[in-house]
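Q: Study each token:
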Amino acid sequence: MSENAQLHHFALNNPTLLSVLCNKSDDAIEVINPASDETLGYVPSLSKNAIIDIIERAHLAQKQWANLPAKSRSAMLRHWYELVMANQDDLARIMTLEQGKPFAEAKGEVAYGASFIQWFAEEAKRTYGESIPATSEDKRIITIKQPVGVAAAITPWNFPIAMITRKAAPALAAGCSFIAKPANQTPLSAYAVAELAYQAGIPRDLLAMVNSHSSVMVGQLFSSHPLIQKLSFTGSTEVGRVLIGQSADTVKRTSMELGGNAPFIVFEDADIERAVQGALASKFRNAGQTCVCANRFYVHDSVYDDFVQQFSRAIRTLKVGHGLDEGVTIGPLIDRRAKDQILALIQGAVVQGAQVATGGEDLGGLFIAPTLLTEVTQNMDIVQKEIFGPVAPVIRFSNDSELIAMANDTIHGLASYFYSQNINRVFHIAEALEFGMVGINEGIISTEVAPFGGVKQSGIGREGGRQGIEEYLQTKYLCFGSL
């Protein structure tokens, strides 16, 4: 079955996706498979006025939604979760076709994305206020939690379902309406998962997807429209700064999950075999195109050669290709610009003195061989920049204080990882790392039950965990007097 045939097969039971695929207007946005360069379909490019109309309808829908009992909202979210899981294979195929990640990885993302819907379906019933001891006997003080109103989000191409559900599920659970702009490279997954929400009973005006050729226009509208009370963004630090500035005039609440430059540290007392497996999972998932993937590898002098040897051997087992092909573990980069940036970083590192231990080849199309660089130093460009591709630069260190200084030498503070079996060192290093998340003897840390987010210029706010729904709630204080 051809790629288009696979998409249309699923779309037959998914009216929203089918209408998108069949809508080839003159200004439609073309969606291309990065692995084959084949056109998959089109999504409409909406005008500013069309998006304003969606915002206004979302404002009206939110008032009715917020009045529903939390248990009713929870039931619809739970039904949405069940539909997503029932369509896991089809959603994964769509994701692989438009984003490129291997099918098994895409299935994992569908389940991961669904887990946020399941989690926040339950959290909808736990938005508790509190009773506060009053200052006098004739007063009573309580607080209640209420939804902020219309929430908007701008989501990236690297996790086209999970980045939607991680924001939409807590917003809907809290009683908000939700409008998202999925990335123009990967919108089909978003439209498909939204259709399943409609089938679960969630009103269309309450949950909307919008796309436009002008991402700048959408960003300006989301960050300035007075009916939008909350803006959530996942993407680069540079764009996040702009959106924060644009949101200031309306004093809008923002959540920003921005760039990362994650250190992965291997101490001399680490279990090297486990460290290699953790490094492989952290670095090469989604071809290294994740904001929390390991970006800089710091390995103690005494185990450097052993780690490099084992890591090189493990990297050479990875299979690059089309994500639907058997055994493929590394898919393409998202577009030509991304590939050119990665190749330039590799070349620049080599010019600055790094050695290619394995990989480094341009495999044609949008594919690059997973690469390990040795003899890397802290001042190289590849260490100072977010790589966002399948390249692992390895740096030597000799003592803990030197290591901490190098690891924290970045404007970013999203994720970090280290391997050690010394319990005293574990607590010291975990507290000293200036990052919002720390993986200790673990290379994969994202989960719906824990707060996801960074410090410094990696962001504001948290997603997931009990903290995730708080981003869409406001606290109201009620003071009763003359009692």
